[in-house]
Amino acid sequence: MNKPQMASDSDLSALFRPKSIGLVGASPNSKFGPQFLRLLEQLGYSGKVAVVNPRYEEVAGYSCHPSIKSMPFVPDAVFVLRDAASTVAAIEEAADVGVRAAVTVATGFAEAGAEGAAAQARLVNVARRSGMAVVGPNCSGLINWADRVHLNLGAFEPKKAGHVALIAQGGGPKNALVANRRGVRWSHVVSCGNEAVTGSADFLRYFVDDPQVRVICGFIETLRDPERFFFECDRARDAGKPVILLKSGRTDAAQKAAAAHTGALAAPFRLYSGLFKRHGVVQVDSYEELLASAIAMQGGRSPGEGRLGLASSSGAWLEMILDESSKCEALSYPDFELQTVKTLRSVLPDLAACGNPLDFWGLKNQKEDSAKIYDAIASDANVDIFVTPYDPNHVGTTGEEQEMWADCAVEVAGRTDKLVTLITPVDASALPEQIDRFLEKNVAVLGQQEAFRALDRAVTWRRPVPPIADQPPIDTLGMAARLHDFRGKPFAGRPALDFLAAAGIPVVESRFVTSVDAAVNAADELGYPVVVKIGDTDVLHRTELSGVITNLRDAQEVSAAAKKLLAAGSKLLIIQSYVRDGVEMILGLETDDVLGTFVLVGQGGIWTEIMDDAALRPAGLRVGEPEQMLSELRAEKLLRGVRGAAALDTQALFGAVRRLDAIARGLGDQISSIDINPLFVRKQGVVAVDALIVPASGANGSRRK
């Protein structure tokens, strides 16, 4: 996979804040060149601009020059409007004269086959030799509203600058998000394209360091340099800047489409999701969720601990809001302080309740009393976020009331530094000019369906990140020797169980035999009932071969089972105590060549593939992450005890997860995967009854350097 070269701060500055621009390939007969120049003027760009095209004397009032070398100045950045072959030649010429940055919009590079990949390799070599930052190819460029400059293909609105930056691996998503009328105010946006030279991690680093940016959003197909990208995510968190990402490629079809689109090779979505959680990324599932989360965070006001103070003039609307907000674990409705209750009681009818959330009605002086209610709730020390419904679609007297309550919220926002939010019943029902008016007064406008999930994410993001957990001791040297012995070949049976035992993971008591008589003797020794399994180390999926016979209650049944498996070709049998109590779980490790090693826990046994109930995190678990992973599973209820059943030993499960994590930390580069299925969680302790170990390929079992 192509890994972009790290761009210097000066090169990125030349991209986003060039003092001079060369437009290469513009034509008066094409809409893009004149449009590009006109938008520079509308933005108020104050730098020098020149056009390069030997066929014309001028374009849109700007004089043309036959080449970059013949321009009257060396531009900080060039925007290249040429086909693939001519683009490479233009970048070579730009490098020769000392241009520090370029945007290349042409298609026909790595996304288009071998010939395009060769052209892209030439472009990369030129950029690396010269130290030039290059966006693209196969992109639409960038816009910087904060510094009133663009290097962008296509029209856009020269809006007032905001505090949200966008990194988009796709022109369509970029255009859709930039053109939103929901209330996100962008500071910068960049379309990455193929990321041949300058990549997402570079743009993320730039936005982390830019004081104009408060929130960083992204539409991501793949990460070509995940280590640097997530390092920058950690820096963003330390800088108090949320990173909100929408990741495509959740299905095989979408991953194939990404490869065809930008030449992206996408790892499984579940691995990205685990990394997002580890590095504090706000993960969203749609454009709407991305925009709502950005709106909730762009104002710079803290959501605190997520304690909502809600005032509604409609009881039915309040019920709908409670239904939505109850889905969000980080949000709550605290009791009001005594002084707040006294203020509310002074204006509400005697029969009206004064709780939180508040259904207010029957006011004698609508405007004055509403203002008192809003101010009292927003001023309450137990409240972090003030929320009130707002329906801009009403007309007549009811519409006047809606605007009055919105004005009350605006007044509250002017007297507090808390987050003040208007909730519309139908998302995007407020007009853009209404939303802009509220934004100017530090009031966020969110649709009911997305509002509380956005607020929930804002609260969760601000929670402190726990440290990396201590690593329990394991026999790393002995386990590495076992891996080496198999020289990249998968193994199960006795060596797999011994491997787990060396890590301190409890395994079921087992005997390994080669005859029927020995099987009966082993069963007598263990005590009935027992299980008889195929024990050959190269038989990896015994259940699919009917190679596991359970609940054998006497010697006659064991003898029959042993004869059956030996007759089928098994050379070794495993005799195990039959574990009947507890819940079956699966634990595992999975190593990706690019993203690294991950720890998995989920519902096991025959339910693993049916229920698809699993949680995953990158190796090197933080304090509390095993508990967090379990909380994401539907199987958690089984382990905690349901319908009168006793709670099981989840602490022992967490201990096994930590020991599996210790294997990943010590031996992750030597292991392709580990599959412990099932691991029984019992009233006391856990026990693994089967495992499959797949070493990494290579003579010494090492795959990744």
Walk me through what this model shows.
The protein has 705 residues and is an alpha/beta fold. It has four domains: 9-297, Succinyl-CoA synthetase domains (Rossmann fold), CATH 3.40.50; 303-461, Succinyl-CoA synthetase domains (Rossmann fold); 509-577, ATP-grasp fold, A domain (Dna Ligase, domain 1, 2-Layer Sandwich); 583-695, ATP-grasp fold, B domain (D-amino Acid Aminotransferase, Chain A, domain 1, 2-Layer Sandwich), CATH 3.30.470. Helices cover 39% and strands 20% of the residues. A seven-stranded mixed sheet has the order 3-4-2-1-5-6-7. Strands 9-8-11-10-12-13-14 form a seven-stranded mixed sheet, with helices on both faces. Strand 8 and strand 9 (149-152) form a beta hairpin. Helix 3 (84-97) runs parallel beside helix 4 (114-130), helix 6 (200-209) runs parallel beside helix 7 and helix 19 crosses helix 20 (555-567). The radius of gyration is 31 Å and the shape is flat. The protein starts with 8 loop residues before the first helix and ends in a 10-residue tail after the last strand. The model is unreliable at 261-265 and 699-705 (pLDDT under 50).
